Amino acid sequence: DSTDLEYDKENYNLVLNLLKKLNCPVYHVVGNHDLQHLSEQGLKEIINYKELYYSFDVEDFHCIILFSKTIEKTDIKIDEEQINWLKQDLEKTNKKTLIFVHYSLSDQDLTGHSLFEGFPEVCLIQNREEIRSILTESKKVIAVFIGHLHWNRIDKHNSIPYFTLQSLVENLNNEGM
Q: What is the DSSP string of 133-151?
């Protein structure tokens, strides 16, 4: 968890150095904790990324990493520039596509959630319906992977499964699967 800018820089670099030892590709899906003290530009410099949204291919699959930008704690969106990029990126591929994003693109029932019940504005992307429509219309997206919500769930929208996964470093519960 973040405490200040210097601590975040130090920890990010520590983790990056550990991941380099794995000798395998590492892809970043940026979330709210990554940017608690770091700026978007500062984080891009640390991880050496031009943008915090991007795509790549792995064998028969096309992978898209989206950046769900938080303007304020309750203003979570995929911005217009990224939406245009997403449409173009989906048009260019003929592969089955996987989407990865931090905040939720699915309409989740937050009843019983210890952190987010009654507060969808701090965990669900505001323009999620628009983004889901783009994903559905492409006819290429086979699954979407989501973080942030600290629980495991599967939701479906227009036959596309939306998998919400809790952090790899926590295990609060396994309900919802």
A: HHHHHHT-EEEEEE-SSSS
- pLDDT tens for each residue of 138-171: 999 999 999 998 889 999 999 999 999 987 666 5
Q: Tokens 């599967």 identify what position?
A: 154
Which residue is associated with the tokens 């429509």? Answer: 133
- 35 compared with 41, residue with greater pLDDT: 41
Q: Please give the DSSP secondary-structure letter assigned to residue 100.
A: E
Question: In terms of C-beta distances under 8 Å and separation of at least 24 residues, what long-range contacts does 26-29 make, across chains too?
Answer: 27/56, 27/63, 27/65, 27/100, 28/52, 28/65, 29/65, 29/100, 29/101, 29/102, 29/147
DSSP assigned state of 122:
G
Task: Give the start-end residues of each E strand in the chain.
Answer: 54-58, 61-65, 69-70, 76-77, 96-101, 141-146, 153-157, 160-164
CB contact at 8 A, 162 and 109: no
Using CA atoms, how far residue 73 sits from 51, 77, 133, 146, 158, in Å, is 21, 11, 24, 18, 28
Residue 172 has pLDDT above 50, yes or no: yes
Q: pTM of the predicted model, to two decimals?
A: 0.90
